Amino acid sequence: MKTSLAPGIRLITSFSRDSWYRGFILFLTFLFYTAYHLSRKPISIVKSELHRNCSGIIPPADFNITNNETWCSWAPFDQNNYKTLFGALDNSFLVAYAIGMFFSGIFGERLPLRYYLSFGMLMSGLFTCLFGFGFYWNIHSFGYYAFVQVMNGLMQTTGWPAVVACVGNWFGKGKRGFIMGVWNSHTSVGNILGSLIAGVYVSSSWGLSFIVPGIIIASTGILCFFFLVERPEDVKCSQPQQHNHLESGETEPLLQSSSQVDNGSITTAIPEIEAEHSEAISFCGALRIPGVVEFSLCLLFAKLVSYTFLYWLPLYIFNVAHFDAKEAGDMSTLFDVGGIVGGIMAGLVSDYTGGRATTCCVMLLIAAPMLFLYNSIGQRSLGTTIGMLLVCGGLVNGPYALITTAVSADLGTHESLRGNSRALSTVTAIIDGTGSIGAALGPLLAGLISPYGWNNVFYMLISADILACLFLSRLVYKEAQVWCGRLPRIRGYKET
To answer: Band of the pLDDT at 459, cuts 50, 70, 90?
Structure first.
């Protein structure tokens, strides 16, 4: 009598060898970038511990108090200019990150991704731990902490271009928005885990809030060295289809070639970018790809908003809602939970409609009044706070997630590149590097503006959202023309 296979074995064998490898790479890169973001988050949680209101705390009997309100704070953050110092500390990391990002993609295309990522994660772990060691070594020099932040910012630039290039090598454009929307939840998962881990130690020994995440990211660097596979052909897997054709049924208006109307006939002009499969694309060549400049500038302002929340939301909740440091950190994770849902929804909608730019623009437009409402009524009750954080997180992080993943991968494998798969890392670095300028400006401006009232910080964030929409206006108009049938559906524009 012939016995049937066990259900679990049937499930395993139903997937092809290619599918198993693709799933494995997706999981690994998800884990890697979760660790990157996990190691960035502790600074925002620890801020409320570095500067505390100590008036209600009984000091040790042998302790000489010079200021009754800040005696338990950590120098040099115990002075009235602590918000400016926090802003400068954030900026030390983010400016280094923004500058380094433009070079990171160039290195990423010319070096093996496995070595590049492993080195970056090991060094990021080292500098994250060094910040925490300042607690145990009793270091009170602002210069020390700023230097560690600068070096960590440079090391963190190894992550994003490399993981996006790796995922782009393994996955075609079919459902890239949805796949990368789910995959990009690593950003929010990392922020949530980083907040929770840092929150465990923040009140007792804040140094561990950095050391534990530092050990985690260093460990994932070792994992990367032993298991990452950069390209399907390295393990004899089939390569994904990177370019679409009319019969594919996909719609990608934002990536279509520039069109010209001449005597009623439509002609297309594709920017000529000479590239061989084995050659890396130049910086200027990447800028000539249609859509790169617009999405880069949009991401600058979108990331300004997202990173201001990343670095300042726990302190805002601590000051306005009067939670303690751990509770404020835990509450801030709801913003990232909303970001997970927002990123997935943005990917799904843009896959279905073919309108990457329109999806981003609509979410940013809705985000602006939601931010105003959160600042106005968001702290009236616990339920309102939770609801507003989830909604704002989804609307703010949705466009940011879509641009940094699916849009970057689309543009990095644009048809004008003529099959040059090595351009993906440079295109990703340009888009995320430009966005990182906004990521540096946001927390810095928040540190400068917040002493004059949190209302002014939110006005800045609302203005940034509106500016992000304006930079996408040309692409939104172009997508609308395609939907109305005024432009042909080229390279994946299926006629209905």
So the answer is: very high
SS3 180: helix
CA atoms of 71 and 77, how far apart (whole Å): 11
Among candidates 193, 208, 458, 205, which has minimal Cα distance to 313? 458
Cis-peptide, bond into residue 112, ω within 30° of zero = no
- Which is nearest to 120 in space by CA: 249, 222, 266? 222
- Name the token pair of 244: 């679409």
Both structure tokens of 240: 């994904």
Cα–Cα dist 166/101, whole Å: 17
Amino acid (1-letter code) at residue 170? W
**Please, which residues have CB within 8 angstroms of residue 105's CB and are 6 or more apart in sequence?**
161, 425, 426, 427, 428, 429, 430, 433
pTM value? 0.73
Burial 146-173 (b: 16+ CB within 10 A, else e): bebbbbbbbbbbbbbbbbbbbbbbbbbb
Task: Write the secondary structure of 45-109 as one string of H (helix), E (strand) and C (coil).
Answer: HHHHHHCCCCCCCCCCCCCCCCCCCCCCCCCCCCCCCHHHHHHHHHHHHHHHHHHHHHHHHHHHH
CA angle 202, 207, 212 (to 5 degrees): 90
Residues 6+ apart with CB under 8 A from 322: none
Contact 202, 46 (CB under 8 A): yes
Residue 117 near residue 32, CB atoms below 8 Å: yes
Q: How far apart are CA 36 and CA 187, in angstroms?
A: 8
Element (H, E) at 398: helix 382-402
Q: How far is 328 from 385, CA to CA, in rounded Å?
A: 11
Dist CA 158 CA 127 (whole Å): 14
Q: What SS3 class is residue 268?
A: strand
- Cα angle 341-343-348, degrees, rounded to a multiple of 5: 95
Per cent of the chain over pLDDT 90 is: 29
* Structure confidence by residue, pLDDT tens digits, 354-390: 888 899 999 999 999 999 998 888 777 888 888 999 9
